[in-house]
Structure formats: structure tokens, C-alpha cells
Fold:
Amino acid sequence: MIKFGIGPTELIIIFLLIIFWIWMLVDCLRRRDDEFPKGGDNAKLIWTLVIIFTHFIGALIYLIMIKFGKGKRIT
Structure:
């Protein structure tokens, strides 16, 4: 009989994804408004909502676009 459940490996992966999500959310909330490359005055609000509502995928997009994108405003 096949058992379907969450084993220790899956729990570790889920735990690490949650830690990553919280880390990106905290980074977004602590970042000043002028450190976002695009988005105008509401960039922090927009990115916070993206991270909250899209969970890991939003955190990954934030990491690529903001953290690796140097986070400097383009003028």
C-alpha cells in the first residue's frame, strides 16, 4: 500500500521556504522607498503585497529583481 504523507525531507524544505519568505518580507519592509529601482512612491507597498500574496514565488521575484538588481532607483 502506498502512503502519502510529509516526511522529514519535505518538512525541512517547507521550513527553509518559509524562512526564505520571511527573510524577503522583512528585507522589503526595512528597505527605504528610494532604494527600490521602479514603482514610484508606492513601490514598498506593491512589493510587500506581491510577497504576501504570492508567497515563495513573489519572494523569489523580489530577490532577483531588487536584491540582485542592486536596488538603485533608475532615473
In short: The helical segments are 8-30, 43-67. The radius of gyration is 16 Å. The chain has a mean pLDDT of 87. Residues 8-67 form one domain.
